[in-house]
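Dear support,

Our group has been running a series of protein-ligand predictions, and this particular one with magnesium ion is the one our PI (initials K.S.) wants archived with full inputs and outputs. We had some confusion internally about which version of the output was final, so please treat the block below as the authoritative record. The input we submitted was:
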Amino acid sequence: MDYTIKIGGEAGQGVDTIGAILSKIFTRAGYHVFSHPDYESRVRGGHNFLQIRLADRPVTASRDIVDILVALDRQSIIAHEKELSADGMVVYDSAALGEKVEKPAFLDVPFTDMAIKQGGSKIMANTVATGAVLGMLGMDLGIAREVIRGELKKKDEHVIKANLDLVVAGHESATRNCSRCAFALPPGGQRKLLIAGNEAIGLGAVLSGCKFYSAYPMTPSTGIFSFVAGKALEYGIVVEQAEDEIAAINMALGASFGGVRSMTASSGGGFALMVEGLSLAGMTETPIVIGLAQRPGPATGLPTRTEQGELLFALYAGHGEFPRVIFAPGTPEQAIHLTNKAFDLAEKYQIPALVLSDQYLADSSWSYETLNLEELRNTDYRLRGETFRNLQSYKRHALTASGISPLGIPGDGPHLVVTDSDEHDEEGHIVEDAEMRRAMVQKRLLKKMPLIKTEIEPPTVYGSDKPEVVLVGWGSTYGVLKEVVERLSARNAAMLHFSEIYPFPGTQKLDYLALLRGAKRTICVEQNAMGKFASLMRSETGYTFDANILKYDGRPFTVESLSGEIDAYLAGV
Amino acid sequence: MDYTIKIGGEAGQGVDTIGAILSKIFTRAGYHVFSHPDYESRVRGGHNFLQIRLADRPVTASRDIVDILVALDRQSIIAHEKELSADGMVVYDSAALGEKVEKPAFLDVPFTDMAIKQGGSKIMANTVATGAVLGMLGMDLGIAREVIRGELKKKDEHVIKANLDLVVAGHESATRNCSRCAFALPPGGQRKLLIAGNEAIGLGAVLSGCKFYSAYPMTPSTGIFSFVAGKALEYGIVVEQAEDEIAAINMALGASFGGVRSMTASSGGGFALMVEGLSLAGMTETPIVIGLAQRPGPATGLPTRTEQGELLFALYAGHGEFPRVIFAPGTPEQAIHLTNKAFDLAEKYQIPALVLSDQYLADSSWSYETLNLEELRNTDYRLRGETFRNLQSYKRHALTASGISPLGIPGDGPHLVVTDSDEHDEEGHIVEDAEMRRAMVQKRLLKKMPLIKTEIEPPTVYGSDKPEVVLVGWGSTYGVLKEVVERLSARNAAMLHFSEIYPFPGTQKLDYLALLRGAKRTICVEQNAMGKFASLMRSETGYTFDANILKYDGRPFTVESLSGEIDAYLAGV
Amino acid sequence: MHTLQEYEGRTPAWCPGCGNFGIRKAFQQTMVELDLAPHQFTIVSGIGQAGKFPHYVRCNTFNGLHGRSLPVATGLKLANHAMPVFVFCGDGDCYGEGGNHLLNAMRRNVNLTLFVHDNQIYGLTKGQASPTSLEGTVSNTQPFGALSQPFNPMVLAVAMDCSFVARGYVGDIDHLKELMKEAINHQGFSLLDIFQPCVTFNKVNTYDWYKKRCYPVESTYDPSDRVEAFRRAMEFGERIPLGVLYRNQRPVFEEKVPVLREKPLVRQEPLFPRVDGMLEEFY
Amino acid sequence: MHTLQEYEGRTPAWCPGCGNFGIRKAFQQTMVELDLAPHQFTIVSGIGQAGKFPHYVRCNTFNGLHGRSLPVATGLKLANHAMPVFVFCGDGDCYGEGGNHLLNAMRRNVNLTLFVHDNQIYGLTKGQASPTSLEGTVSNTQPFGALSQPFNPMVLAVAMDCSFVARGYVGDIDHLKELMKEAINHQGFSLLDIFQPCVTFNKVNTYDWYKKRCYPVESTYDPSDRVEAFRRAMEFGERIPLGVLYRNQRPVFEEKVPVLREKPLVRQEPLFPRVDGMLEEFY
Ligand SMILES: Cc1ncc(C[n+]2csc(CCOP(=O)(O)OP(=O)(O)O)c2C)c(N)n1
Ligand SMILES: Cc1ncc(C[n+]2csc(CCOP(=O)(O)OP(=O)(O)O)c2C)c(N)n1
Ligand code: SF4
Ligand code: SF4
Ligand SMILES: [Mg+2]
Ligand SMILES: [Mg+2]
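Confirmed final output from the archive:
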């Protein structure tokens, strides 16, 4: 079983509410789900959709083929009717759309009318639509009732009741009228959880002891901000909306200097404003985690869409030379763990750590039976209380063999904690001399870098052991690459996926260069126009891919579109 | 003849005045000069020096060996006495320094006393020192008088007279007392001009029709700002000190959109703040020239010193993908021409063009007999007046075969000029659709890039035709590499110097890869800790240098120090 | 004479009922009354719902970055001071991200007109508190409610001796249009803050909320008295004054720039200077 | 009781005669009198001659970027609001590059004390006009002279309802020290603008210039009246008032943040939350 349900409509019509509730019902019922939204940079009107993949095995990407299209407006039909599968159905409300479609694949359910008849508001029409989809799928309403109750728990009982009635009404109408509905669900398995990339990064931060989060709203990073803000009271986190992104990063650095774990995030335009602060973190050796949720650029670009155009920007951002780590999780699960690792390494090495995501990862929801949170690395690397107080003497930037200097907390003991954006001596005071400069560059950069590199895990290999075709990717393309490799199994294919990107992984733990060299064809798949990862690969290892498949229209790869492109390439060579 | 004169003293003591006047006298007299200052980030006190190389053939770098040390303070003796050549002399004022040095290499000239005796102020002691140096060199005072008159032309006649008397007094004292002075100058050639890197960039801008310059002061870029400001009245240039660097670049973009050639400049920290605006230039296809004068980072770093740490930052700065050019002149002459080329290409392709320099190039002065200004490329690529008015229709971002759209001026005709930082259609209005996005990325980036690449000149080769040893460098190391190659002539060496860096030069015009592959040893010389150019080379061509010589202490390479390092490396392999 | 149709741009992507429609209407009427053709002026805007404004009004347009329209407009105006340049921003755009540019635009006093769509919220990014949001505004990024004192742009502008300081409200289009004309006709930097209800995200500062509070300053009010203007500008509670709150006749920046005396920069010739003699100073 | 020696940091790299020495002296005395040991407070500073201040006074120090000290100090104070945090900036630093942060620091009202070394010039970068430079100031980057109206920080601060607004002068160290104490003791965001002659680059605003003009506000002056404060703050010409010009008792930001009620963030435990149950909301 592998169905795709697409809900289309204008911004403000409730596409995402229907999507969220359906997804929750499916996962609660034990099915696997992958969903991704497609929305415009406007608040009302336009054309948005959300696509849910519902299956009895793990699914990690979207498909081009739609089984049930919930059309909240006419545009949804115009744009997506052609995507219907052979048995695919459109469910819509002819009265609301002002048009009755007399085709067998169209199921007319009077969403609005039913809602109003039941004494509900127009908005409750969406509950009817939800019920209708469940009816079409032949799913019973037990779990749906539970989910709806849960979602509305803050509402009045009569609102809850009305919604419960409406879901039944939609269900009944579809069951009764959709003779052509050939969908069949196997029994669901264990209940699943559903988590989106932004939630995962936020969760990773909270679980890593992030105590200070300052940011300025910017799509698609705002979801991290609001997740953390939602946990602020419970977990004792100060969240502050800064006046701009420059303030956001400088506040976070101030808080980190003060002794607490801090984070900020933005998308490309806001990150651009943080670049000077990033360099300040480098010079003052102040730990910080920075989320960069990419979207298509340059400049404002396509604010609500996806791209992977900023890998090298993230890598080289900041004036002067200093170490950093860059992680680009491919799944929400990786997002939790790599955000945690970012916090850990940021503090251990006193460096900035970047978590690079994009709108596709940020907004896509994945289902899991559970997530392993036991392996989180939570170590406090700061000198605190007694330990700090009892030191004979203290130099914030002491020259050490490892390059790591003791990280004290100002005010926490009799020792002064001094740091400076100018080149400084061990105590943190301004210097001009060449010798100290050399020593500090060695300490801050050259000694730390190899140590940090040992922390980096190799890329993930999935598929054949001795592949003839290797698909290479990084970040958010993990899910689609994985599914495409499965489809290509006849071709003896594998995926090589990089999520710990900088310091670039060595080949000691996994000789990925041997894997690549052993293959007949290597293809690097990226969501940008210039092949940023391919360029980094070449500069780091000298290796050049046989081909690059690049997409830069702001839309994610789907399983079909990517495997189509790969087939075409392989057929051509 | 190849003498080095070093003037040392505290900030505020007049090290640079003495240096500037001596240099002018030498070039006016027809000698070749290269000078570079070394100063701290403070206004008074500390230890500064300026080093002038004086020769009868072109010189393009500083040496480690000092022939005449003018010590304005004791620290100058402590720091630099050891640099003296066999016949080297220190000239100083024992009364002012409070110490009489009884060594044969020390010439005591009572600078201050003489100045005061002649009724002059303490500051005029520097004129005595100037005279003393000329006396030690055995140079007559004809040209010195002329230069001093010129420099003081706005002063009262009695001040001029006093200075002229003092230069004579210093000269006489040295001539009389320096029995050990063995310096001898051959007759000078044709008069030379003397120009520093910052002046050259500023001159290049003015000569390219730059009409608007907005910036925020930041060492070492301020010299460009003040050069252009000095020409504002004469050449009709609006210069404005912005409230910050973000405003600086956005103002320049506004002016450029308005139809005039515009520029801004900063050093790394200020450039970091311009990164979002850089991306805006990319998206709106607004021509702009940006000067980036590097200094050691990260953050505030060593504000008055030199580094080449920001090549990859400059290359990848900005969110999203857009074309740019990056030039890194190696000499003031190149600085003029590459700034001009930056203006030309910026407007021709409607892109940002970066002129990457550093403190060493910015502040070093070079002598030339003359400079060829006839080859400047000055073409107006904008649609103006009649041509614009008479168009049937106009679309600012029209899709064209070359990717270049017509660049109209708002208000200049009946057509609307519309641009947007969001992705847009041909007319410049916001769009969301995938197809137009693809078309615009192709137009803006993928079509233009190959065209821009054809404009790029290959690196400069100097030295042997079929070298066994190739020294590779970029930007400000040109001069020292050239001299080191001359020294290495027995080794069959050549220099390969890159000044047009991005788009990275192809090998059609000059097969530099063949040259490198043909050599036994290739060494990339950079003033940074990580080998930024070497990394770019690898990512662009796959080529890896045999060795990297890196320097990151904020001080420039000298002829001896670099050739020493190279000898050591070659001896070791 | 131009017609309203000439100023019809693309179809607005604003929510139905949004206060921005009123600003558009008033502006289009203003252009007709001032007899400015679409190609004769330029709008510079930022990012936000307000920033989309020029796409919906036919005109020369530079729709730049969030918070950075004032510097762009400054550069543009200095390049061509014969052309009217208008800036349209959101409250977040101009009072938040762009605060430093606002301060300096007021100090410079370039002859620009700034229209702020003040909906006391971040509209396009879906409802976070803006600098003008009331204290306590809860949102997905203000879990404790907005804790800062709301920004009063009128008070700031008077304090910065801004050349023209006014406030309008989309509930009274005619009054707003008259203010727009005055603001544009004023020589010097003009700020017109416009209350514009965000019907989707701002559930406090609604049409009703403004209607109850806003009143036009009395005809006897003297906007040239800075201290009085300060006192009046502070009024923001049960009653909120609309109209021209402060005005002065400070000299305009571009008139002080010697090289702009003869004509706009963009019309100055030659485009490229002659090179002879240029090197002499270096000898 | 601490001694002056304890606050002796590195040897200043300022020019002999620079007004900054007076600020240092007054501050060191203030610390002695307030009995704050060097490790008990932190100074955050920017870049400029003023920014070097904490290196010359023994203390915890975060010497950050040009213009960005206020956000750093805000983050630091929110991490540890039990620790006094002082900010030392230049006029260019704080009123130029950092203008937006100043506006928002005043709105937030975090309990920080901001000391501005106001020499009406960019000192460290050798003499360009700063926001407080008088109109007409010619420099290597102002060939036409500074054309913008000088920034009056006192007026701005009153307009922003800044919690404590004062001005001092290094020509009267005792008065300055008393102001420093008041500013530090004030609960809320305090701005103390300090005239500090730059003997090297500012040839107009000299010791003499200030001496002729500056006078302490009379003892009857009531700094709680905002309109009066506005009027007084505007005085900047033949006479310039020194002292506390405005003061209010606005609630302090950190007291409004619920999670800071019990203790400073840096003292809160556990450092890392327990993970059980954390996933439940996602099912
Ligand atoms: C540098 C930067 N930061 C953040 C954003 C995201 N962003 C877009 S619009 C906006 C706020 C909009 O609020 P406002 O300016 O009040 O305009 P409105 O939508 O309310 O008209 C933000 C934060 C951005 N585009 N650029
Ligand atoms: C982002 C950035 N821009 C510019 C500079 C260069 N810079 C250093 S100090 C300074 C101005 C100093 O003036 P002010 O703040 O008044 O301090 P003062 O030296 O007068 O005490 C400038 C522009 C910088 N360090 N960083
Ligand atoms: S979100 Fe608010 S401001 Fe934006 S268009 Fe909708 S109603 Fe208007
Ligand atoms: S330049 Fe001016 S402000 Fe800086 S130290 Fe010297 S006198 Fe003081
Ligand atoms: Mg708004
Ligand atoms: Mg200053």
